[in-house]
Amino acid sequence: MPARQTDAAQHPFGAAVGRLVEEFGRLPGIGRKTAERLANHILSCPKADAVALADAIRQVKESIRRCKVCFNLTEQEVCSICRDPRRDRQIVCVVEQPKDVSALEAAAAFQGTYHVLGGRIAPLEGVGPEDLTIGQLVRRVKQDGVTELIMATNPTLEGDGTALFVTNLLEDLPVQVTRLARGIATGSVLEFANKEMLADAMRGRQQF
User: Fold this and answer.
1) What residues contact 7, with CB distance under 8 A and at least 6 apart?
2) How far apart are CA 139 and CA 157, in angstroms?
3) Quick one: DSSP state of residue 90?
4) Per-residue confidence at 6, pLDDT binned at 50, 70, 90?
5) Alpha-carbon distance 48 to 62, whole Å?
6) Which residue, 90, 133, 141, 139, is CA-closest to 111?
7) What is the mean pLDDT of the chain?
8) How far apart are CA 127 and CA 208, in angstroms?
9) Pair type for strands 112-116 and 65-66
10) Is the pLDDT of residue 5 over 90?
11) Cα–Cα distance measured from residue 70 to residue 81, given in angstroms and rounded to the nearest whole number
């Protein structure tokens, strides 16, 4: 029997609760004590509430997909941002993950559209350009007449390297490539930046 199942079986409330604790413990930022508290909450709450939570998790895994235009998360083929006629489709902000779109949208300082790469080039982790949506981005720039590409990859070594790689691919195309201003501290990620910091960085973007 695998170690995880053995540990679950040893829980004083039984294997089912032990498995629940272990699954909660696999979530980001959740330690053993927090996992135990969450499991105890599920045990003590009305059955309907627990079933509603389980159903919400199942539904989101079944209904959420990648937007066929920008690769953001959506319930439809094309996300609400790409469908919005008020958005400037000639300005595209390139980010690493869907959570970065959420962070920038909360800042309410950008009225263009997005392109989600699905990560960043990280050779040591086995992630190359072919694993990202870089090819789709280049085709989008060519086909949609994009005039400005804002590289909003995270200000890390890998994020900067990814931005430089994309910029080199587009050097022969008539598109201006800009970078978010360094209002965001190097080494941080967009997900944890506050709204004011993100808004200042977007407004103060510079030529790459």
Assistant:
1) 18, 22
2) 26
3) E
4) low
5) 21
6) 90
7) 90
8) 23
9) unpaired
10) no
11) 9
Contact 103, 193 (CB under 8 A): yes
| Contact status, residue 106 vs residue 153, Cβ threshold 8 Å | no
Distance, CA of 155 to CA of 188 (rounded, Å): 7
Sign of CA dihedral 82, 83, 87, 90: positive
Dihedral angle sign, alpha carbons of residues 120, 164, 168, 98: positive
In 12-87, beta strands by DSSP E: 65-66, 73-74
* Three-state secondary-structure class, residue 174: coil
Q: Which pLDDT score is estimated for 9?
A: 65
- Residue 122 has a pLDDT of 95
CB burial of residue 164 (10 Å; 0-12, 13-18, 19+): middle
| Rounded average pLDDT over 153-171 | 93
**Which SS3 state, helix, strand or coil, does residue 74 take?**
strand
**How far is Cα 30 from Cα 27, in angstroms, rounded to an integer?**
6
Tally the residues of the chain: 208
Neighbours of 23 (CB within 10 A): 15
pTM of structure: 0.77
CA–CA separation, 135 vs 144, rounded Å? Answer: 14
Q: Which residues contact 22 (CB under 8 A, 6 or more apart)?
A: 4, 7, 8, 35
| pLDDT tens-digit map of 100-139 | 999 999 989 899 999 999 999 999 999 999 999 999 999 9
Amino acid 14: pLDDT: 79
